[in-house]
Specification:
Layout (H helix, E strand, L loop, with lengths): L2 H11 L8 E3 L7 E4 L4 E8 L2 E12 L4 E2 L14 E16 L19 E12 L18 E7 L16 H6 L6 E6 L16 H7 L1
Antiparallel strand pairs: 1-2, 2-3, 3-4, 4-6, 5-6, 6-7, 7-8, 8-9
């Protein structure tokens, strides 16, 4: 891959114009991840009004982008998705909160959650729904936005179950947040025939607790 292409993909990963650049798990941004070019970023994990993680992280690439890498990894796949590139990174979650919630981050997580971890991320182009809507599990579901880009992790950037304090993990056990390994970005214009209303099944919280 050329240096220009490497920088172009890095720029896509880290877009920050006008406050944008957050990769979303759900359309409302309850769970999202954002990378900055200076080696910092933010991770938020929650559903609607619930919050479990809202923290800064530090990250660095462990090599150059690999162009058109295979589409393995992640909890889902799409046959019409085009892989733009794949990158190995190191990410370290910190205890620096980005929101004023009294019971988040280290209140819920063990110290192991704040150790450096290695990930492989894959950048894809296509038409994607926010991953949260997969929770409808076959029920009729409508969303008002599709996205042009998807970021797929080989494992979720949300700490695994063993790094949550047992006495605090009831809600995250139900949600299985450590399986959330895909995020979308860059909303597309509505297409003809798309639903203009949102049914109850587009609510991730409702889908989680009625499944």
């Amino acid at each position: 891959m050329t240096a220009n292409m490497d920088q172009a993909l890095l720029g896509t990963l880290c877009e920050t114009d006008e406050g944008e650049g957050a990769w979303l798990w759900d359309a409302a941004g309850g769970t999202m991840i954002k990378f900055n070019k200076d080696g910092t970023g933010t991770l938020r994990c929650g559903v609607e009004m619930l919050r479990w993680i809202a923290a800064e992280f530090e990250w660095k690439p462990l090599g150059p982008w690999i162009e058109g890498a295979s589409s393995g990894g992640g909890s889902g796949s799409s046959s019409d998705a085009k892989t733009l590139g794949q990158l190995d990174i190191e990410l370290t979650l910190t205890k620096r909160a980005i929101e004023r919630h009294g019971h988040i981050n280290e209140k819920l997580l063990t110290e192991d959650a704040f150790l450096p971890k290695k990930y492989t991320v894959r950048l894809e182009q296509g038409k994607f729904m926010a991953p949260a809507y997969k929770l409808a599990k076959g029920r009729k579901s409508y969303a008002t936005t599709k996205y042009a880009l998807r970021l797929v992790f080989d494992k979720s950037p949300i700490p695994p179950r063993k790094e949550w304090k047992d006495e605090e993990a009831l809600a995250v056990d139900r949600c299985r947040v450590w399986e959330w390994d895909e995020f979308v970005y860059r909303g597309l214009p509505k297409e003809e025939g798309w639903a203009s209303v949102i049914t109850e099944w587009t609510s991730p919280l409702i889908a989680l607790f009625r499944s």
